[in-house]
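From: lab user (bench 3)
To: helpdesk
Subject: output format question, protein + LHPZP3FS

Hello, I'm new to running complex predictions and I'm not sure whether the block I got back is the full result or only part of it. Here's what I submitted:
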Amino acid sequence: MKTQQSKTLFDKAQQYLVGGVNSPVRAFKSVGGTPIFIEKGNGSKIFDVDGNAYVDFVQAYGPMILGHNNETVTKQVTSALQDGYAFGATNEKEVQLAQIVCETFETIDKVRFVNSGTEAVFSAIRLARAYTGKDKIIKFSGCYHGHADTLLVAAGSGLATFNMPSSDGVPQDAVKHTLIAEYNNIESVKTVIENNKGQIAALIIEPIAGNMGCVLPSPQFIQALQQVAKGNQILIIVDEVMTGFRSKFGGAQDLIGLKADITTFGKIIGGGFPVGAYGARDEIMQKVAPLGNMYQAGTLSGNPISMACGIATLQTLQQSNPYPQFEKHGAFLEKAFYESAEKYGVSVQVNRFGSMLTPFFTAEKVVDFTSASKANTEQFSTFFWAMMEKGIFLPPSQFESWFLSAVMTDEDLEQTKLAIDYAMEQVAKAHF
Ligand SMILES: Cc1ncc(COP(=O)(O)O)c(C=O)c1O
Ligand SMILES: N[C@H](C=O)CCC(=O)O
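Helpdesk reply: Thanks, we reran it on our side. This is the complete output you should expect:
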């Protein structure tokens, strides 16, 4: 694997960008070595500046569900660009994308577009507080909801990767209303509620956790969560930034049977352009300005290029329906993991939901952040670099999800299966 050009660019990047990156997980810090610099993407693959090709399981951390440079999407974005990029006045494309979201989600009458998942989530929390008149919120350990102050506690993704319980610069005052419960543990939720009776506006949850690696909620947990929230007048914010339109044309909330009061989006609804959104039934959304007194605004919110890309991406997903294929491909990879792990005596747990998956290097079932944290990150690093050597690009962290794209071919999957076998062998050689 040649890396000279990436190394040269990374040296230069570190002169001008903090740590050479614009988002911490991209720095490869937890797996060591130099991050690759991407030149271009096409279909299921990305290509780095040294000429290496990789089957892409990162997909920009989710949005590129149709793969790179999808012909229909590129055409519609190019056409939108000819008409101008931002107006500070409403454009029909905003209405079109909003209509798709509202018609797809039973729990949503209206949406508001913003520019990122982070913005969507902190706005949703403000809305829940405005609607209920209460301040406290519950968040689950290991879930990540973006980098707003209130939510940078016991968070997953980069914070889990770098073993940071919280971020410097967040005042104690900003997190004093954030209460932490454990994923898949209803007793922990009940205890938090009992200790804060009548003060909790909302709980926020990743319906399928993707930011401590992929972790699925049990049906019993979801059912009890719904009941407990309802019984205590606590709104449920379902954070679908990662899961929205990923495992079905709609939300993971439908698949697991969780009824959202407020839903947040990002990633796929912008198809790779900056976007976020939050939505709810009318009664709640009427609190948002200009209808109500909860203020939230944005210079570039609903910009026509993100909207065009989102519309084209969702329409293509709806027409092509890649979801049954995701199931087939996901199951193929899951089997490949377990077969190779057994062959080389490596302990692995593969957690998967449709097109999201994480292989955890541990013998214990992974059901929450505590069990996820027991995964062997050194084994993961060995595995990661062996996969890179064989042309497979993965998130450079044990605590992220891999994503399948609709354009992955049988050949890509065979290549990935062979790479998994090789990488497991390297793990066994290096660690046993
Ligand atoms: C579930 C979830 N919520 C919120 C966010 C924040 O989104 P963004 O990175 O677009 O701000 C992310 C990803 O970063 C996410 O995975
Ligand atoms: N896990 C994060 C979002 O889903 C990864 C994106 C990032 O923080 O760069």
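A quick orientation on your result: The CA atoms of residues 154 and 303 lie 33 Å apart. Let us know if anything else is unclear.
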